[in-house]
Automatic annotation (TrEMBL):
GO molecular function terms attached to this record: kinase activity
The protein's name: Histidine kinase
Superkingdom, natural source: Bacteria
Key words, A-Z: Kinase, Transferase
Organism: Paenibacillus aestuarii
Gene3D superfamilies linked: 1.20.5.190
């Protein structure tokens, strides 16, 4: 074979070898990128799981709030009834206070009359 043909083959082989080296570097970079994507994907899965857990907690809290909110009308009714009973009791207390005032006045009058009668009895003796 001629020297020129061998030189051409050698040049061609060097070009193929350079391309092959370049491809190996690209493949290595692709492997690194794939590994980074896998790591990122795993991280996203963890984040999604945390979001799901948080969502479940929020849903449970919402259910509790709905239960508590459902009791509000009953609580309002109980407060209204208690207020009415307090108003009735207050009226009763006012009536009793009035009666006590009347009784105190009567007792005071009877006490004075009794003292007057004692004094009259002592004068008669």
């Amino acid at each position: 074979m001629s020297e020129q043909l061998l030189q051409q083959i050698l040049t061609e082989l060097k070009g193929i070898k350079t391309d092959q080296q370049s491809m190996r570097i690209d493949i290595q970079e692709l492997k690194i990128d794939v590994q980074e994507l896998k790591t990122s994907q795993q991280s996203m899965r963890v984040d999604i799981q945390e979001l799901k857990t948080g969502q479940q907690k929020l849903e449970a809290e919402i259910i509790e709030i709905k239960k508590d909110t459902a009791l509000i009308p009953f609580i309002q009714q109980a407060i209204t009834e208690a207020s009415k009973e307090i108003a009735v009791a207050s009226e009763s207390v006012r009536h009793i206070e009035g009666t006590l005032t009347d009784h105190e006045t009567i007792i005071d009058m009877l006490s004075r009359r009794s003292l007057e009668q004692e004094a009259a009895v002592k004068r008669i003796k």
